[in-house]
Every structure is written in structure tokens, then in C-alpha cells.
Design brief:
Blueprint: H1 3-12, E1 36-40, E2 43-46, E3 51-54, H2 69-80, H3 90-102, E4 108-112, H4 115-130, E5 134-138, E6 151-152, E7 162-163, H5 170-173, E8 176-179, H6 184-194, E9 198-203, H7 217-230, E10 233-238, H8 249-254, E11 260-263, E12 274-278, H9 280-283, H10 302-315, H11 320-342, E13 347-351, E14 354-358, H12 367-371, H13 375-387, E15 390-391, E16 400-401, H14 408-426
Parallel strand pairs: 3-15, 5-8, 5-9, 9-10, 10-11
Antiparallel strand pairs: 1-2, 2-3, 4-12, 6-7, 11-12, 13-14, 14-16
Helix pairs in contact: 2-10, 3-10, 6-7, 11-14, 13-14
Bound molecules: pyridoxal-5'-phosphate.
Length: about 425
């Protein structure tokens, strides 16, 4: 038995499913999860000392490459000065100023420790600010695991959602409306019916949790105008897209100014750091200034802030996003032509340092499109690549990521590997 399997069995005896976050268990692709021992640059190593080119990047944070020496040094230095204070520290203000500089819609910002906390707090804030209960989310968008966001569509388009997890009372999701992504008709109908009862609309402005799915320009413009007219708060959940698709996030790509933005993943550079921020008028409803309660023992943790600040510094160096974009383009073009040569139905899309691979004729526009793609094809591809030393996320419904450490040579190597896998799939 290999070491990954031994460790998985041992973990399963004490940790439910052997993992601390479900996707890691390989449930949707089958097989044994790789237990990671070390990560450096574009590579991860498992407990069998097998090396993989990594396109997961810890699900996004590792944008400058794993264990970047400058980030590690910043963390070491911060740690020597104490791991947590439970009191304000200067670096928290510096990173808050930095976030506001890079994302101009953010006039005030508060730091938290996870994306889940950021979105949960932003929703509470939107409700507190508007005095309304109803919220709108989109099918296939993931916003962390708080109760009112673990919701699937109800029986009719405008009926309220049902819990998508056991343990969430139906009463808690009664106020959540779930609409199809990119569906301007459904959105218009929803606002015509409920506009003045809606506290907020939350979306992944470029979706990355149903694989990569981009919104149409019409969809995001309509979102902005309908929420403004109705006095509802528009929340861009940029936990994944922030500092990932562009330095200014998806909102800079769309030219849209949301009311609130949530961030995570890249801003912590691999440490537990996340944030929510936006319009001053809304943010000042948060305690201690306002009546919306929110707090955190480890919020603004000095070690996490140090990792985040150094990461934000590195991503602002000249050519950083051009290089990420070029890497994604080289990879998606290479994979697409390799699949075509082998006769495998496949397409791909990318933006900034994020890409999507689809075993489908056309790039999906919604969760329903994604579900209709060849999920079995993805599984075969995934395992074929993993067996040959290339790691993608263990689910067809996840986007993939490159880092600054993914050189043209490594991308070329990945494409060569994929040629063999596609040929096997075709044969
Ligand atoms: C990852 C993610 C979250 C949740 O963040 P955690 O840090 O895992 O709690 C929320 N929203 C989006 C868009 C995400 O990608």
C-alpha cells in the first residue's frame, strides 16, 4: 500500500472522510487523495515523494508560486514578533489601505479569516443597512458555507430556495432566492416582483466554483442597474477572482462598481486572511460604529497580514498579470489543439491567472450547461494527468489556476503530457 493510501486510512479513522474540506477526499473523481508533503514554486510533492505540476494552487492563493522566498521571509519575521495580539496593529491599516488603493470601490474594509466569514458578514451588513431580509444568489455560485447561502433553487423560478445541506433550517433559506447565472430575463422578473424587498444580490462576478464561467456584459450591467434602482446592495464575491483575474479584480474587468466586495484566497497569500469592504456609508453600519455585529479573535492576524502584504507587493510588479495571462493562453490553446488532434470533445477558457477546461462542445454559460458536459471525460483526463505528474482540482466543477512560477517550459510539458492522455481517451 502506498503512503498516500496509508495516511488516508489513518485520517479516515479520526477525521470525517479523512479530510478537513470535502473536495479534497476525491469523492467526485474516485481514487486516493494525494497527501501533500511539500509545495514549492509550481510544484507539489506527495508523501510518496512523487512530484506534480500543480494547477490547484491551494484553490487560488498560491498566485506568486508556493513558498515564495520573499513571502516566507515576511511570515518568519512577523512570527518572530508574536503570532497574535487581539489588539490593533499598524500592518492591518497598511494592508487595508493597499486593498482600497487596488480596488477603488472599497472605501472601508474589514479583515476576517476566511471567505465564508467575509460573505456571511457582507450579507448581514447588507440586511442591516437596508432593513430588508431577502437575498438573491445564483445557481452554481459558491459563497462559503454559512446557512443562508447553502441553498439550491426552489420548485419555481421565483420561489424561495431549499437548503442544499442537512442541518440548515428551511426557515433560514426562506429569504434566499436562487436564479440561473447569466439569465437576464429571470433577473428582471425577480426584481419586478420583489425589488424593494431585496437586501442584496451576491454573485461570483466571474464564476469559479462551477468551473470557470464568465458572465455576459449585459448580465452584469443589468445587475448593477436593477440593484441601484431597487436600493439593493450589489455584492461582488471576489474571494476567488480578487487579485486573480486582474489586479483590480473582476470589477475592474467589467467596469462595474459594486457596493460591497468580499475577498480572500490571494489576499492572504496562503495564510488565513479574508476581507469585506465597500461603500463608506454601508461599512459604517458595522460595529463598533453601527449596529451590525461582527468580530473575530484572529481577525487581522499579524502573520497572515504579513503574508498578504508581501503577496500584494509582488503581484504589482511590472508584467505580473501579462505573464499569468500568457501562461493560461499557452496552456488552454495547447490543450485545445491537442484534444482536437485526438478527436476528443473539449474546449477551454481563461482570464488572468484562472482557467477552465470543459469536456463539451461549447464554453458553458450556466450551471445547467456545466452539468450537461461530459463529467466522465473529465474524470478520465484528471486521473490520466495525475498519473503522469500533473495535478488539477479533483472535480469537473472547479476552475484551475496558474502562478508566476508556471514557466512556458512547464506549460509546454503539461501540453505534451495531455497529448498522451487525450490520445488514450480517444483510442
Ligand atoms: C473559496 C470561496 C469562498 C469561501 O472561502 P473560504 O476561505 O473557503 O471560506 C467564498 N466565495 C468564493 C467565490 C470562493 O471561491
Amino acid at each position: 500500500m502506498n503512503r498516500n493510501e496509508q495516511l488516508f486510512n489513518r485520517a479516515k479513522a479520526i477525521i470525517p472522510g479523512g479530510v478537513n474540506s470535502p473536495v479534497r477526499a476525491f469523492g467526485s473523481v474516485g481514487g486516493i487523495p494525494r497527501f501533500i508533503k511539500k509545495a514549492q514554486g509550481a510544484y507539489v510533492w506527495d508523501e510518496n515523494d512523487t512530484r506534480y505540476i500543480d494547477y490547484v494552487g491551494s484553490w487560488g492563493p498560491a498566485i506568486v508560486g508556493h513558498a515564495h522566498p520573499e513571502v516566507v521571509e515576511a511570515v518568519r519575521e512577523a512570527a518572530l514578533g508574536g503570532l497574535s495580539f487581539g489588539a490593533p496593529s499598524a500592518a492591518e491599516t497598511v494592508i487595508a489601505e493597499e486593498i482600497a488603493k487596488l480596488v477603488p470601490s472599497v472605501e472601508r474594509v474589514r479583515l476576517v479569516s476566511s471567505g465564508t466569514e467575509a460573505t456571511m458578514s457582507a450579507i448581514r451588513l447588507a440586511r442591516g443597512y437596508t432593513g430588508r431580509d431577502k437575498i438573491v444568489k445564483f445557481e452554481g455560485c459558491y459563497h462559503g458555507h454559512s446557512d443562508s447561502l447553502l441553498v439550491k433553487a426552489g420548485s419555481g423560478l421565483l420561489t424561495f430556495g431549499n437548503p442544499s445541506s442537512a442541518g440548515v433550517p428551511a426557515d433560514f433559506t426562506r429569504h434566499t432566492i436562487v436564479l440561473p447565472y447569466n439569465d437576464t430575463t429571470a433577473l428582471a422578473q425577480c426584481f419586478a416582483e420583489f425589488g424593494h424587498e431585496i437586501a442584496c444580490v451576491i454573485l461570483e462576478p466571474i464564476a469559479g466554483n462551477m468551473n470557470l464561467i464568465k458572465p455576459s456584459a449585459e448580465f452584469v450591467q443589468q445587475l448593477r442597474s436593477l440593484t441601484s434602482e431597487a436600493g439593493a446592495v450589489l455584492i461582488y464575491d471576489e474571494v476567488m477572482t480578487g487579485f486573480r483575474v486582474a489586479l483590480g479584480g473582476a470589477q475592474s474587468v467589467h467596469g462595474i462598481t459594486p457596493d460591497l466586495t468580499t475577498m480572500g484566497k490571494v489576499i492572504g497569500g496562503g495564510m488565513p486572511l479574508a476581507a469585506f469592504g465597500g461603500k463608506k456609508e454601508i461599512m459604517e453600519c458595522i460595529s463598533p460604529l453601527g449596529s451590525v455585529y461582527q468580530a473575530g479573535t484572529l481577525s487581522g492576524n499579524p502573520v497572515a497580514v504579513a503574508a498578504g502584504l508581501k503577496t500584494l507587493e509582488i503581484i504589482q510588479r511590472p508584467g505580473f498579470y501579462e505573464q499569468l495571462t500568457a501562461a493560461c493562453r499557452q496552456l488552454t490553446d495547447g490543450l485545445t489543439s491537442a484534444a482536437q488532434q485526438a478527436g476528443v470533445t473539449f474546449c477551454a477558457d481563461h482570464i488572468g491567472g484562472m482557467f477552465g477546461l470543459y469536456f463539451a462542445e461549447h464554453i458553458p454559460q450556466s450551471y445547467a450547461d456545466m452539468t450537461a458536459s461530459n463529467i466522465e471525460g473529465f474524470k478520465t483526463f484528471f486521473h490520466g494527468m495525475l498519473d503522469r505528474g500533473v495535478a488539477f482540482g479533483p472535480s469537473a466543477y472547479e476552475a484551475s489556476f496558474v502562478s508566476a512560477a508556471h514557466t512556458p517550459e512547464l506549460i509546454g510539458e503539461t501540453v505534451e503530457t495531455a497529448k498522451a492522455v487525450f490520445q488514450q481517451m480517444a483510442g
